[in-house]
From TrEMBL:
Pfam families cross-referenced by the UniProt entry: tRNA-synt_1c
Classification via InterPro entries: Glu/Gln-tRNA-synth, Glu/Gln-tRNA-synth_Ib_cat-dom, GluQ/Sye, Rossmann-like_a/b/a_fold
SUPFAM superfamilies with a match to the protein in the record: Nucleotidylyl transferase
Species whose genome carries this gene: Mytilus galloprovincialis (Mediterranean mussel)
Residues of the Glutamyl/glutaminyl-tRNA synthetase class Ib catalytic domain: 14-187
GO MF, one example: glutamate-tRNA ligase activity
Cited Gene3D superfamilies: HUPs
Full protein name: Glutamyl-tRNA synthetase
The UniProt record lists the keyword Ligase: yes
EC assignment: 6.1.1.17
The family this protein is said to belong to: Belongs to the class-I aminoacyl-tRNA synthetase family.
Keyword annotations of the record: Aminoacyl-tRNA synthetase, ATP-binding, Ligase, Nucleotide-binding, Protein biosynthesis
Length: 195
């Protein structure tokens, strides 16, 4: 749940979102999540927002967004804001918002609170496989966190794709989830954006 203030900042409101990836058919668990969020928003005089999480273009399936909207309509789950209904906080398709994030990403990179990670998907998969084999939580090992400027420039000149990761101090920031109760997540492995 997100709590926000309207533009006038005089009214506190509840805003919840459903952000599926258009990678195939909507499954029952996702429909349930959409329904819960929709009903929660309505019960609290809030807004239900549909945002399409399409940043992984390699897995995007043609027609998946239209199919998703048809299923939501069939289930009488009508977004207050979204790619087809509009709203004040658009665009509601994640890939169309990248320009909004770019200046902030540049600021994070310039002030040293983020870094470019050039690790291949193959390497990341190996790290994950090894962690699971050892019955550990999979996480990025920070290999690219301390690359020199020269190493970083060399990788950029080679055209190696990268993601931008946050450079956070090692700590787990606990928070209270309305459904699950206390949650603790290690924020040091957060990815911001991929190239």
């Amino acid at each position: 749940m997100l709590r926000c203030f309207h533009v006038s900042q005089s009214v506190n409101c509840v805003r919840v979102r459903f952000a599926p990836s258009p990678t195939g058919q909507l499954h029952l668990g996702s429909l349930r999540t959409a329904l819960y969020n929709f009903l929660f928003a309505k019960a609290n005089n809030g807004k239900f927002i549909l945002r399409i999480e399409d940043t992984d273009q390699t897995r995007k399936v043609s027609g998946a967004v239209e199919n998703l909207c048809n299923i939501l309509q069939w289930a009488s789950v009508h977004p207050d804001e979204g790619p087809f209904s509009g709203g004040d906080c658009g665009p509601y398709v994640q890939s169309e918002r990248l320009h909004l994030y770019q200046k902030y990403i540049e600021t994070l990179l310039e002030n040293g609170t983020a870094y470019k990670c050039f690790c291949s998907q193959k390497r990341l998969d190996l790290l994950k496989k090894e962690a699971l084999r050892n019955r550990e939580t999979p996480r990025y090992d920070g290999k690219c966190r301390h690359l020199s400027d020269e190493e970083r420039q060399d990788k950029l000149q080679q055209g190696i794709p990268y993601v931008v990761r946050l450079k956070l101090v090692q700590l787990a920031e606990p928070f209270e989830d309305l459904i699950y109760g206390p949650i603790e997540i290690d924020l040091t492995k957060t990815r911001v954006i991929q190239s």
